[in-house]
C-alpha cells in the first residue's frame, strides 16, 4: 500500500488528525485510531476526522446526499462518535483550504445529521449545532466531592455542572475550585442516566454573558476545549438563571468560543487552525492495526 496522507489541526487546542479518504478506501480500525491519537507512538490527537463522501460511507450516512462531505469522527479511544463541535469547525476549514468547497455557507454530514457551517476568510467558523435538549438533573463526582449538574443532549450526551452564579460574591473561590479539579481520572456519574458514557463539563459564570469551563470527554480524558460541551454548558447556565435563549462567551483552557442558543437551534463560533500535513509510513500504518 502507499503512504497515508494526514493533516493536523485544532479548534481552540482541541486537536485532530484529518484523513482525506473521499472514496472510503482506508481501513480505519479502532486500533489504528488509538495508535494515531497516541502522543508517543503516533501523531497525538483528541480524535480523528476522516474526510469521506457520504455515499462511500454506507449506513452511518443513510439518507444524506451521497456527494455530501461526511465527518467520520472517532474519539481517541477508537470508536465512532455521534458529533464533535470543534471537529466540525476544523473539518470545515480543511474543506475550504483544500479547495473541496468554497468559503461561505455549506453543510457537513455527521452521525447527528447534516450540520450547516459558515467559514469566514479569517479562519473563524460557525456551526449550526441544532436543537439543545436539557434533561434531568444528575450528579458528577470528582475526588469524592459531588457536583450537581444537568443532562444535556447536543447530538451526544453531556453532564453540565454549573458552579455557582455570576451574581454571588464567590467567583474567585469558584474559579480556584475549577482550576483545582483533578480531571486526570474520569468523573463519576450515574450509568443508568448515561449508559453510553458521558462528557462532563464544569462551568463557572464570571459575568452575565461570560463563563470559564473545563471538560472531561468520554474516551479521551480532559481536553483543552470541547465544542458540544461548550454548548451544553451554556445551556445549563441559561437554565440556572431562568433563561432558555441567550449568547455567551466561554473561556476554555484552549481559547474562547461563542455560543448562541435560540428557541430551536444553537450556534458555535470560534477559530480553526491547520498546523501541518504529511504522510504516515506504510509499514507503521500496517503494524498499527496489530495492537
TrEMBL record:
<keyword id="KW-0457">Lysine biosynthesis</keyword>
<dbReference type="InterPro" id="IPR001653">
    <property type="entry name" value="DAP_epimerase_DapF"/>
</dbReference>
<dbReference type="GO" id="GO:0005829">
    <property type="term" value="C:cytosol"/>
</dbReference>
<feature type="active site" description="Proton acceptor">
    <location>
        <position position="226"/>
    </location>
</feature>
<feature type="binding site">
    <location>
        <position position="14"/>
    </location>
    <ligand>
        <name>substrate</name>
    </ligand>
</feature>
<comment type="similarity">
    <text>Belongs to the diaminopimelate epimerase family.</text>
</comment>
<feature type="binding site">
    <location>
        <begin position="227"/>
        <end position="228"/>
    </location>
    <ligand>
        <name>substrate</name>
    </ligand>
</feature>
<dbReference type="GO" id="GO:0008837">
    <property type="term" value="F:diaminopimelate epimerase activity"/>
</dbReference>
<keyword id="KW-0413">Isomerase</keyword>
<comment type="function">
    <text>Catalyzes the stereoinversion of LL-2,6-diaminopimelate (L,L-DAP) to meso-diaminopimelate (meso-DAP), a precursor of L-lysine and an essential component of the bacterial peptidoglycan.</text>
</comment>
<feature type="binding site">
    <location>
        <begin position="217"/>
        <end position="218"/>
    </location>
    <ligand>
        <name>substrate</name>
    </ligand>
</feature>
<comment type="pathway">
    <text>Amino-acid biosynthesis; L-lysine biosynthesis via DAP pathway; DL-2,6-diaminopimelate from LL-2,6-diaminopimelate: step 1/1.</text>
</comment>
<keyword id="KW-0028">Amino-acid biosynthesis</keyword>
<protein>
    <recommendedName>
        <fullName>Diaminopimelate epimerase</fullName>
        <ecNumber>5.1.1.7</ecNumber>
    </recommendedName>
</protein>
<feature type="site" description="Could be important to modulate the pK values of the two catalytic cysteine residues">
    <location>
        <position position="217"/>
    </location>
</feature>
<feature type="binding site">
    <location>
        <begin position="85"/>
        <end position="86"/>
    </location>
    <ligand>
        <name>substrate</name>
    </ligand>
</feature>
<feature type="site" description="Could be important to modulate the pK values of the two catalytic cysteine residues">
    <location>
        <position position="158"/>
    </location>
</feature>
<feature type="binding site">
    <location>
        <position position="199"/>
    </location>
    <ligand>
        <name>substrate</name>
    </ligand>
</feature>
<dbReference type="GO" id="GO:0009089">
    <property type="term" value="P:lysine biosynthetic process via diaminopimelate"/>
</dbReference>
<feature type="binding site">
    <location>
        <position position="156"/>
    </location>
    <ligand>
        <name>substrate</name>
    </ligand>
</feature>
<keyword id="KW-0963">Cytoplasm</keyword>
<dbReference type="Pfam" id="PF01678">
    <property type="entry name" value="DAP_epimerase"/>
</dbReference>
<feature type="active site" description="Proton donor">
    <location>
        <position position="84"/>
    </location>
</feature>
<comment type="subunit">
    <text>Homodimer.</text>
</comment>
<feature type="binding site">
    <location>
        <position position="75"/>
    </location>
    <ligand>
        <name>substrate</name>
    </ligand>
</feature>
Amino acid at each position: 500500500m502507499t503512504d497515508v496522507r494526514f493533516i493536523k489541526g485544532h479548534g481552540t487546542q482541541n486537536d485532530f488528525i484529518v484523513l482525506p479518504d473521499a472514496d472510503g478506501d482506508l481501513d480505519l480500525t479502532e486500533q489504528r485510531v488509538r495508535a494515531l491519537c497516541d502522543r508517543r507512538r503516533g501523531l497525538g490527537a483528541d480524535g480523528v476526522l476522516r474526510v469521506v463522501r457520504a455515499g462511500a460511507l454506507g449506513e452511518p450516512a443513510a439518507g444524506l446526499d451521497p456527494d455530501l462531505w461526511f465527518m467520520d469522527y472517532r474519539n481517541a479511544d477508537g470508536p465512532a462518535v455521534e458529533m464533535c463541535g470543534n471537529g466540525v469547525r476544523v473539518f470545515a476549514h480543511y474543506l475550504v483550504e483544500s479547495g473541496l468547497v468554497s468559503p461561505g455557507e455549506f453543510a457537513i454530514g455527521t452521525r447527528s445529521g447534516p450540520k450547516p457551517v459558515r467559514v469566514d476568510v479569517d479562519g473563524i467558523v460557525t456551526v449550526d449545532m441544532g436543537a439543545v435538549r436539557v434533561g434531568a438533573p444528575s450528579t458528577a463526582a470528582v475526588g469524592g466531592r459531588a457536583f450537581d449538574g444537568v443532562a444535556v443532549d447536543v447530538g451526544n450526551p453531556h453532564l453540565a455542572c454549573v458552579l455557582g452564579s455570576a451574581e454571588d460574591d464567590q467567583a474567585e473561590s469558584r474559579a480556584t475550585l475549577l482550576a483545582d479539579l483533578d480531571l486526570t481520572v474520569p468523573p463519576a456519574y450515574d450509568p443508568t442516566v448515561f449508559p453510553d458514557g458521558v462528557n462532563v463539563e464544569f462551568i463557572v459564570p464570571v459575568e452575565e454573558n461570560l463563563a470559564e469551563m473545563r471538560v472531561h470527554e468520554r474516551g479521551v480524558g480532559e481536553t483543552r476545549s470541547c465544542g458540544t460541551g461548550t454548548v451544553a454548558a451554556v445551556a445549563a447556565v441559561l437554565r440556572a438563571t431562568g433563561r432558555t435563549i441567550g449568547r455567551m462567551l466561554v473561556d476554555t483552557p484552549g481559547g474562547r468560543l461563542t455560543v448562541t442558543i435560540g428557541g430551536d437551534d444553537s450556534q458555535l463560533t470560534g477559530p480553526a487552525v491547520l498546523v501541518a500535513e504529511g504522510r504516515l509510513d506504510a509499514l507503521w500504518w500496517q503494524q498499527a492495526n496489530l495492537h
